[in-house]
Design goal:
This protein is α/β, with parallel strands linked by helices. It contains 15 helices and 23 strands. It has 2 domains: 265 residues, Aldehyde Dehydrogenase, Chain A, domain 1; 185 residues, Aldehyde Dehydrogenase, Chain A, domain 2, CATH 3.40.309.10. Helix content is 38%, strand content 22%. Helix 2 crosses helix 6 and helix 9 packs across helix 10. It binds nicotinamide-adenine-dinucleotide. Nicotinamide-adenine-dinucleotide binds next to helix 7 and helix 8.
Length: 494
């Protein structure tokens, strides 16, 4: 019997107003259904927004260190449940088990790290230009925070948003991706078990078009924190601009690894395989462009293809699996369409480029790790985010050309360079247009206590992770206290 899950609104578990549900299926095996979830629409969003607005008034008055104690407990429960959560995650979205464990670990790290902010949330105290006058700034919560998340990090990304929103005193409406509603549900249950007053956090399931679009437009929502594609992010930004509403956007990427002629090639190939095919290439930071000096392009590409061809596809719960499925039918169609585009554009397809259907793979959405060589920077496969196990190798003649190619895309999330030349490494750190640059490591591997995010079509100026995340979820309030007992005029009584 398939379990039917509910929304959490105003502290109660409720069905969608429509009474409808949608299925949550395992991408490695479509016959394995994890549950059915409410198909919410504007009516459910309205109820959630009203509940959140009323809960905010109480939650913002709870001292931040007390709010944080609840989050520490949530961190402890995450630690206890790490293995169960990871296994469910692999069933729900396909990534191999060790990566799912990493996703949960990132959620644990973020929860503990941000809980620490409960005793910081620091502002400034600074001298006033007038005598007997005090000047300071404090952080205050924004209000009702809508957190909209993608499916590729179904626990980590919700913690990046929901946990800082809560520690800062906001009430939250959380809409998980429709491909990973169960991890969203389990995360909310953990926060409740940790003692979060249930009315502070609303969980609204559903599609982006129905629930998500209504959420970003609801007048009681004060802030939208969105992670997903650049196309949807742009819609979110436009909807928020009309209401003068704050929105933070973490969007797509077309990340690159530069491999210079002096690189440790074995290390660079290791990095390219992990960066390009880890999480089946479905990371916003996936290394989908390998910009390689022509002097080593042949050797590098041969080694890469050898490794890519040997990667074992399969169910991520099986210990031998190295690459899991892509998330759903629409995505595998998209990945394959890009293979056709690459071939038409004249790139060399060296391996992969096909849906894998043999044996147990026929029940899921498996795509063969794909390498295109002799790719030109203007080709669509070198410009557009594919979000699958497809990498492109772009030969270049110099470091300068490599940087120009690296910067010649509309995205700006993560970049990497493999070189043994320290001068070049430092020039790359300055010249690569991206939110993140790695030296002698691939484009993936962010840590929670540093700012995470990108420029150009990847972001809109905010950063998650690090103390910077608090700038999304708090307003600055400046406070002056004049204890002189007389009228003092700044800039005039000098
Ligand atoms: P998506 O944009 O399709 O969906 C993301 C979320 O937005 C989902 O919850 C979805 O239901 C919701 N949504 C969809 N349409 C909406 C609308 N019109 N209004 C409001 N909400 C809507 O993205 P996805 O397929 O879930 O995730 C893949 C994308 O996310 C890739 O582009 C990837 O690069 C990006 N991503 C970025 C980061 C980052 O931090 N920069 C991290 C992970 C993923």
């Amino acid at each position: 019997m398939t379990q039917v899950y509910k929304n959490l609104i105003g502290g109660k578990w409720v069905e969608a107003a429509s009474g409808q549900t949608f299925a949550d299926a395992n991408p490695a095996n479509g016959e394995d259904v994890l549950g059915r979830f409410p198909r919410s629409d504007a009516r459910d969003v309205d109820a959630a927004a009203r509940a959140a607005a009323s809960a905010f008034e109480r939650w913002r008055r709870v001292p931040a260190p007390r709010r944080a104690e609840i989050l520490y407990r949530a961190g402890e429960i995450l630690v206890r449940k790490k293995e169960d959560l990871a296994r469910t995650m692999t069933r729900e979205m396909g990534k191999v088990l060790k990566e799912s464990r990493g996703d949960v670990q990132e959620g644990i790290d973020m929860t503990y790290y941000i809980a620490g902010e409960g005793r910081r949330l620091t502002g400034q105290t600074t001298p006033s230009e007038l005598p007997d006058k005090w000047a300071m700034s404090v952080r205050v919560p924004v209000g009702v925070a809508a957190c909209i998340t993608p499916w590729n990090f179904p626990l980590a990304i919700p913690t990046w948003k929901v946990v800082p929103a809560l520690v800062a005193g906001n009430a939250v409406i959380f809409k998980p991706a429709e491909d990973t509603p169960l991890l969203g549900h389990l995360f909310v249950e953990i926060l409740l078990e940790a003692g979060l007053p249930p009315e502070v956090l609303q969980l609204v399931h559903g599609t982006g078009e129905e629930a998500g679009a209504a959420l970003v437009r609801h007048p009681l929502v004060n802030l939208v924190s969105f992670t997903g594609s650049s196309e949807v992010g742009q819609d979110v930004a436009v909807a928020c601009a009309k209401e003068h509403r704050r929105c933070s956007l973490e969007m797509g990427g077309k990340n690159c690894i530069l491999v210079m002629e002096d690189a440790d090639l074995d290390l660079a190939v290791d990095g390219a395989v992990w960066g390009g095919f880890g999480t089946t290439g479905q990371r916003c930071t996936a290394a989908s462009r390998l910009i390689v000096h022509e002097a080593v392009a042949r050797e590098f590409t041969d080694a890469l293809v050898k490794r890519a061809t040997r990667l074992r596809l399969g169910d991520g719960l099986l210990p031998e699996t190295e690459v899991g499925p892509v998330i759903n039918e629409a995505q595998i169609t998209r990945v394959h369409r890009y293979t056709e585009v690459g071939k038409t554009e004249g790139a060399d397809l060296l391996c992969g480029g096909a849906i894998a259907r043999e044996g147990a793979l026929a029940k899921g959405y498996f795509y063969r790790p794909t390498v295109f060589a002799k790719v030109k920077p203007t080709m669509r496969i070198a410009q557009e985010e594919i979000f699958g196990p497809t990498v492109t190798v772009l030969p270049v003649r110099s470091f300068e050309e490599a940087v120009t190619v690296a910067n010649g895309v509309r995205y700006g999330l993560s970049t990497a360079i493999y070189t043994r030349d320290v001068n070049r490494a430092f020039r790359a750190m300055g010249d690569l247009q991206a939110g993140i640059t790695y030296v002698n490591a691939p484009t993936i591997g962010a840590e929670v206590h540093l700012p995470f995010g990108g420029i150009k079509a990847t972001g809109n100026g905010h950063r998650e992770g690090g103390p910077q995340v608090l700038d999304i979820f708090t307003e600055w309030k400046t406070i002056y206290v004049d204890y002189s007992g007389r009228l003092q005029r700044a800039q005039i009584d000098v």
